[in-house]
Specification:
Chain lengths: 474, 207
């Protein structure tokens, strides 16, 4: 079935205007309301619903602590048209603000605060059994929560006799957010498709991820294989059947392919495996161990940990294996490299004077820069968000492992949930990670929403004792 | 009339500004995920991860020889194919596995006699090689442990080289925490899993 054309905010001039103005509103709102996190919610909901421009901000702020959110929004609505008169000034501000948004010199506050957002309330009616279950999972891990129709901001009304059919109403003004749509294809895909249509229609919300996939290591009876599954863990299938050990799969952006460590040739090598053709080649097979491959966002280079020169150090090579370059030279450990989305930096776990830390280095060499991770102990396994704003990592305190998030330039860490080895979704707000369960050596995968700290375990594969080292397709 | 011209200018300015700044900063790659290039992420009915072709035999690649350009940063290792046809004998030096402290690759003084014994064995058996396998307990994250296991193997190798063993007859591998010998989840198991094992490799019999 052909995909329906989706109405994106950028498709109309008004939409463009709203898209530009919204981060700015949230920026100023976050800055002003730091000491009163509860007061942020009316702003965010307001901005989400109306995309109200900057002009109303002072007015809103003055009333935010006194007025109830819904009253506030009703009062504000009629002012929408007059905002066009303020365009030139606003544009100037926007251009300045947006051009300053480079990852490592960012001056704008993020449009969502990790761990400090409240979920968007949604009601679901007419959908039964599996359809409702799939939809709830999809939405919960993107920052939505569920309530009855009267309390919901968005009402999802649907039916699933045969094909899924659904529409979405905004409770506040009874207007239609999403007209009735009928879906076809495999059933789970129908629901995921609708979830994406809905999330993409919610103003200001990160793009839907319900139709994306994950790759991970699955272990059973002493052997491990590479698996691919839908992001909720369903529809999984093994991509290797070597009966050997694999580790650290890294999904190549925009391709059905991966780099991973394999012990298939009685040695820890890095393979490149194109699943769409079945072709597989040795990417790195140097003396010692070849570990932790991380492909750059444009697919042109691979960072990795090698011990060929006698120490475990960080190296980078072109995607065809040529032009190998050693980036660190230290008898201490380096591990788990990842790339900034612009490909200009590699972040990795390092150790300085017996303390674990995260460092950032240029792929063309030079001195590494230590990243500040206040409030988090023993950081490892960094992963850089696709929008460049945050870095997620594992913090270890004794036997406890937490997923933490810091601004990409370093700073205070926000603990999000229990887990290890995070990988960002393409929406830059949802993470997948591994959590120790059952026997302490075994892992289950879970998906978590950074904004609201909402967490769900993904579906487990029967017969597989441990699922870990997830990599989210981007 | 003037008002109309002014508003036309406004629209033009808006379009140009958005073209110059706004759209450049939208996360194009994120938008791309439903695009035609994202073969793993098609819409319904276009699910192309079913009926994939089987995996082909592994093609060689990479650069198998070890570079010695960075001698000052450790003792370079020989390439992995040097001992490809050698026969492994894990039982010979089984009693000489080295054990490590938590999160450490330092060889404890109590383990030095084992290093001496392994070195003596290798000197007495010229032509035989040694694979040093680094392992970790289950605490610590996976890839951190893989690097730590390799450092344990490398530290063991350096200690042997100090005892006069030929570095080109020693290879290393790390299993991280993938191959525990003790299955428990307490210190009595962990201390047995933080180890490096020595596997003797004998040359293949002459044809």
């Amino acid at each position: 079935m052909k995909r329906e054309k989706m109405t994106r905010p950028c498709q109309s001039l008004t939409g463009m205007f709203c898209t530009l103005a919204r981060p700015l509103i949230n920026t100023v709102a976050s800055a002003r309301c730091k000491d009163a996190p509860g007061a942020l919610q009316p702003f965010q909901r307001f901005a989400r619903e109306s995309g109200k421009p900057l002009k109303r901000l002072e007015w809103l702020r003055a009333r935010a602590h006194r007025a109830e959110a819904t009253v506030l929004m009703r009062k504000a609505r009629p002012a929408c048209r007059t905002s066009w008169l303020f365009l030139p000034g606003l544009l100037a501000i926007c251009s300045t603000a947006f051009s300053a948004g480079a990852p490592l010199e960012g001056t704008i506050e993020q449009t969502f605060g990790p761990g400090h957002e409240r979920p968007i309330l949604v009601s679901i009616s007419g959908l039964s059994g599996e359809a409702a279950q799939i939809l709830r999972f999809d939405l919960y891990v993107q920052g939505f929560a569920f309530t009855d129709a009267e309390a919901a901001q968005y009402q999802i009304i649907g039916s699933n006799n045969g094909n899924l059919e659904a529409r979405v109403i905004q409770r506040i003004n009874r207007s239609e957010l999403l007209g009735n749509r009928v879906y076809s294809g495999p059933f789970r895909r129908q629901v995921h498709h609708f979830a994406d249509d809905f999330v993409n229609a919610v103003p200001g919300h990160a793009r839907g991820i319900a139709q994306t996939r994950i790759m991970f290591k699955g272990e059973a009876a002493g052997a491990s294989e590479i698996y691919i599954a839908d992001f909720d863990g369903h529809e999984s299938q093994p991509m290797t059947r070597d009966g050997s050990l694999v580790a650290a799969p890294c999904w190549v952006p925009h391709r059905l392919a991966a780099y991973y460590t394999s012990y298939k040739l009685n040695h820890a090598d890095i393979f490149y495996h194109d699943f769409s053709t079945g072709a597989r080649r040795v990417f790195a097979r140097y003396g010692g161990s070849n570990m932790s491959p991380a492909v750059s966002p444009d697919g042109s280079r691979v960072a990795m940990i090698l011990s060929k020169d006698g120490w475990t150090d960080l190296y980078v090579a072109n995607a065809d294996g040529s032009n190998l370059r050693r980036l660190t030279k230290s008898p201490q450990d380096e591990s788990s490299p990842c790339w900034s989305p612009d490909g200009r930096w590699i972040c990795y776990a390092s150790k300085e004077s017996e303390r674990r830390s995260l460092s950032v280095i240029s792929p063309s060499g030079g001195a590494p820069r230590r990243l500040t991770t206040r409030l988090a102990s023993s950081p490892t396994e960094p992963d850089w968000a696709p929008d460049g704003k945050h870095i997620a990592f594992t913090s270890q305190n004794g036997g406890n492992f937490q997923i933490c998030v810091i601004p990409a330039e370093g700073g205070d860490a926000e603990a999000i949930a229990e887990g290890e080895d995070p990988s960002w979704a393409p929406n830059s707000r949802t993470l997948i990670c591994a959590r120790r369960a059952g026997g302490r050596g075994n892992y289950v995968l879970c998906v978590l929403d950074v904004g609201t700290k909402q967490v769900k375990d993904v579906s487990r594969i029967s017969g597989i004792s441990s699922q870990s080292q997830p990599s989210w397709a981007k | 009339m003037k008002a109309i011209q002014f508003s036309k200018l406004l629209v033009l300015a808006l379009t140009l500004t958005v073209a110059a700044t706004g759209c450049k900063k939208t996360p194009v790659k994120v938008m791309d995920m439903n695009g035609p290039r994202a073969g793993y992420n098609e819409g319904p009915g276009e699910n192309n991860i079913t009926n994939l072709p089987p995996t082909e035999p592994i093609k060689p690649g990479g650069e198998a020889e070890s570079s010695s350009r960075f001698k000052e940063g450790g003792i370079p290792l020989v390439g992995p194919d040097r001992f490809r046809n050698y026969i492994p004998h894990p039982e010979i030096l089984k009693a000489y596995s080295l054990y490590f402290d938590f999160d450490s690759s330092v060889i404890k003084s109590g383990e030095k006699p084992k290093i001496n014994a392994v070195a003596e064995y290798l000197k007495a058996h010229p032509g035989e090689a040694l694979r040093i396998e680094g392992n970790c307990d289950e605490r610590g994250t996976e890839e951190y442990n893989r690097a730590l296991g390799e450092r344990r193997a490398l530290a063991s190798r350096e200690a042997l080289v100090e005892q006069g063993v030929d570095a080109t007859m020693l290879e290393t591998i790390s299993y991280g925490k993938d191959r525990p010998v003790a299955p428990g989840h307490d210190e009595s198991a962990w201390r047995l899993n933080r180890r490096s094992d020595f596997v003797v490799l004998t040359p293949p019999p002459a044809p």
